[in-house]
Design goal:
- This protein is of the alpha/beta class.
- It is 41% helix and 14% strand.
- It contains eight helices and seven strands, in the order αβαβαβαβαβαβααβ.
């Protein structure tokens, strides 16, 4: 099928049409809370059906119950490092809504450790979830998108650590995120012929439940002093950019990263 069928000129479309996701289905991993939930809410607001894929069943169901139109929301228990779970996520979308059009790889783990103290199992699990999880879920989603024949969007919530180090103690985490930054480029090349775009969003420090074990309110205030725009990021800051990439506003973008950090990395690593 010619690529022009996927990427028709948007010149005649209005802004509201370009951002309308009505009839589309999006699966968001790690969407029970934090950035993933912020992303899911914005995609849902734009009209998309949502599959909340999360390892925490209870949290996913609680999050789903908060949506305004729960008929357009489903949940599925998903450990992204397991291929069978990635496939189950896709099946949930197709069984409930007939298709999968958008995948947002958001699930990830974060455990700080100085390089010389780094435990092999911590490093291995970080790579399994943060890097291989993206590969496995993207594979499962892309195969379905190709079968559908109508293109698609794969968006990964990556990290500023894939661009520049921001804090010490994240060697293994940074390795996983640099891996994703490299992987999406080749994925984008291979999937372009099928009308599937592949892009990353790279948040800086973001106020989520996952940040609490690593940074108290005082720590957040110190971080904000290092951010040129003067505040820490919020899940909706990321949700807005993911919505852009999921919409036809970004139809001619693939294989790239958008940094959303308030300028944080401009001031270098925290040592």
């Amino acid at each position: 099928m010619p690529m022009t069928n996927f990427f028709a000129s948007p010149d005649s479309a209005s802004i509201s049409e370009l951002m309308d996701l009505s009839g589309k289905t999006a699966a968001v991993t790690g969407a029970a809370m934090g950035i993933g939930l912020g992303v899911a809410r914005r995609l849902h607001e734009a009209g998309a059906n949502i599959v909340i894929a999360d390892v925490n069943k209870e949290a996913a169901e609680a999050a789903a119950a908060e949506f305004e139109d729960t008929a357009r929301v489903r949940t599925v228990v998903t450990d992204v490092s397991r291929p069978e779970d990635a496939e189950a996520m896709v099946r949930t979308a197709v069984d409930a809504f007939g298709a999968l059009d958008i995948l947002v790889n958001n699930a990830g783990i974060y455990q700080g450790s100085l390089f010389l103290d780094l435990d092999l199992e911590v490093a291995r699990r970080t790579l399994e979830v943060n890097l291989l999880g993206v590969v496995l879920c993207s594979q499962a989603a892309a195969r379905r998108m190709i079968e559908q024949g109508s293109g698609g969007r794969i968006i990964t919530v990556n990290s500023v650590e894939s661009v520049n180090p921001s804090v010490i103690g994240l060697t293994h985490y940074a390795a996983s995120k640099h891996g994703v930054a490299g992987a999406i480029k080749t994925m984008a090349l291979e999937l372009a012929q099928h009308g599937i775009t592949v892009n990353n969003v790279c948040p800086g420090g973001t106020k989520t439940p996952g940040l609490a074990p690593f940074m108290d309110d005082e720590g957040i205030k110190e971080l904000e002093k290092r951010i040129p725009l003067g505040r820490i990021g919020l899940p909706d800051d990321i949700g807005r950019v993911v919505l852009f990439l999921a919409s036809d506003l970004a139809a001619f973008m693939t294989g790239t990263q958008i940094v959303v950090d308030g300028g944080q990395i401009l001031r270098g690593a925290q040592v």
